[in-house]
Amino acid sequence: MTSSYKEKKVIGIGIVHELTGLSERKIRYYEERELIFPARTAKGTRKYSFSDVEMLMEIASMREEGVQTTEIKQDMNKAQKRKIRDHMRRGQLNAQFNMRK
């Protein structure tokens, strides 16, 4: 199963800076706040996906509106829990009705 091109961690921080307009320092700060999770090469270079770039744009937009990073993280956690819960429900329904994707 191949992952979507949007999920592949192939973009360096310099390109992310150019795409988003965010400083490299701010991008690293959002990583420190656990709002994004870049991959690391063997030498420690950060690699981002297109999904990460989209998330950074959303974060920047929310920050411009005055939303604090702690609030953003809480919202992200809620969304992730909802996604997991929905996935589990689909699995239970599929098992109950012997359905497959």
TrEMBL record:
GO molecular function annotations of the record: DNA binding; DNA-binding transcription factor activity
Domain of life per record: Bacteria
Residue ranges constituting the HTH merR-type domain according to the UniProt record: 11-79
Entry keyword set: DNA-binding, Repressor, Transcription, Transcription regulation
InterPro entries xrefs: DNA-bd_dom_put_sf, MerR-type_HTH_dom, MerR_fam
A Pfam family reported for this protein in Swiss-Prot or TrEMBL: MerR_1
Gene3D superfamilies in the record: 1.10.1660.10
Protein name (record): MerR family transcriptional regulator
Originating organism: Salinibacillus xinjiangensis
